[in-house]
């Protein structure tokens, strides 16, 4: 009997382990366009002040675009409809009333990859307060998740220009639809043709002393991109590629491949021509080589929404590996 008991217990343990592994293994792939957020909440919450607050933060205009486009394209459904295929969305915000005030994040609950942020409040006012306190952290989590998804899609058919690493000591992974428009000691230019326009990546370097500190930073970065980028990029009819003067760019600090970097988002135009679009610029501090490595992505796509085009460029620039 003792031997039989031991055998049965062993079988149960193995069955439990295999069941857990199976549950993880059978998770289906998540679905959804890039930057599409599924919101789960009762219609009462969505149509009231809670919904207004959600839209205020998660549908806020994306920084650095010439026209307003929301951070996320949102769809809402009530909790009783959140089942089956609806649970396969890649990023989900779940707002609900409950016994506590809490924000939590779950990964790969119903599909993979998947990120669900739960907002639980005892009252509507509590949910609104949680949104005010935690919206940035939640947005950052969703943003990082979508960057990884965009990079995963790129890795299905990627290219890595070898000569870029040889000249500037940096490698980038990008979709195979990109081609090299120019490569040389002065700068490197890669572009992807669209039905109307193109997305572009520029790589060049400047001495460390060309970008100062504190109050001069944004002015120095603009001067660098206007003088260097403007002189390098060929523009028809003797035009000049420059930072749009009517709108102040957004400036942030970040890291790229573990190195300090200034991140600038804004719009560019061509002087005296009807050409303009958004840009994303990283000035990466590389003290070992006494330089700022400049990595920039910009889009020219008239009459086309540009949020996801710029997002793809951001995902490419964030693959940078710097020697």
Report on this model:
The chain has helices spanning 2-25, 43-46, 49-58, 124-154, 162-168, 217-232, 307-317, and strands at residues 28-29, 36-40, 73-77, 91-97, 102-107, 111-112, 115-121, 158-159, 170-171, 174-175, 179-183, 188-194, 197-207, 241-243, 250-256, 259-270, 276-286, 291-300, 321-322. Helix 3 (49-58) runs parallel beside helix 4 (124-154) and helix 4 (124-154) packs across helix 7. The protein has two domains: 28-154, Chitobiase, domain 2, CATH 3.30.379; 158-322, Protein Transport Mog1p, Chain A (3-Layer(aba) Sandwich), CATH 3.40.1000. The model is unreliable at 1-22 (pLDDT under 50). 32% of the residues lie in helices and 33% in strands. 30% of the residues are buried. The chain is α+β, with helices and mostly antiparallel strands and 323 residues long. Strands 11, 12, 13, 14, 15, 16, 17 and 18 form an eight-stranded antiparallel sheet that branches. Strands 3-2-4-7-5 form a five-stranded mixed sheet. It has a two-stranded parallel ribbon with strand order 1-6. This is DUF4837 family protein. InterPro entries: DUF4837.
């Amino acid at each position: 009997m003792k031997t039989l008991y031991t055998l049965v217990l062993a079988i149960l343990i193995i069955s439990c382990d295999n069941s857990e592994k199976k549950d993880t293994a059978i998770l289906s792939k998540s679905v959804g366009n890039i930057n599409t957020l599924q919101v789960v909440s009762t219609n009462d919450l969505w149509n009231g002040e809670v919904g207004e607050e959600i839209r205020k933060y998660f549908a806020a205009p994306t920084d650095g675009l010439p026209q307003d486009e929301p951070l996320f394209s949102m769809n809402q459904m009530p909790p009783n409809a959140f089942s089956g295929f609806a649970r396969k969305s890649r990023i989900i915000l779940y707002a609900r009333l409950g016994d506590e005030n809490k924000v939590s994040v779950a990964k790969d609950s119903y599909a993979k990859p998947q990120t669900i942020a739960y907002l639980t409040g005892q009252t509507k006012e509590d949910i609104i307060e949680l949104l005010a306190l935690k919206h940035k952290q939640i947005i950052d989590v969703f943003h990082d998740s979508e960057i990884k998804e965009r990079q995963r899609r790129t890795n299905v058919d990627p290219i890595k220009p070898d000569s870029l690493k040889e000249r500037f000591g940096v490698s980038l992974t990008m979709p195979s639809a990109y081609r090299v428009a120019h490569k040389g000691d002065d700068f490197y230019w890669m572009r992807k043709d669209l039905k109307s326009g193109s997305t572009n990546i520029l790589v060049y370097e400047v001495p460390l002393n060309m970008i100062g500190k504190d109050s001069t930073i944004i002015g120095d970065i603009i001067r660098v991109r206007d003088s260097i980028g403007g002189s390098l990029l060929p523009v028809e009819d003797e035009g000049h590629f420059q930072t749009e003067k009517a709108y102040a760019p957004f400036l942030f600090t970040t890291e790229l491949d573990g190195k300090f970097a200034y991140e600038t988002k804004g719009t560019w135009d061509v002087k005296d021509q009807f050409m303009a679009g958004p840009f994303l610029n990283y000035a990466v501090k590389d003290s070992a080589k006494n330089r700022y490595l400049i990595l920039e992505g910009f889009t020219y796509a008239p009459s086309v929404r540009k949020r996801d085009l710029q997002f793809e460029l951001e995902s490419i620039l964030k693959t940078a590996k710097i020697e």
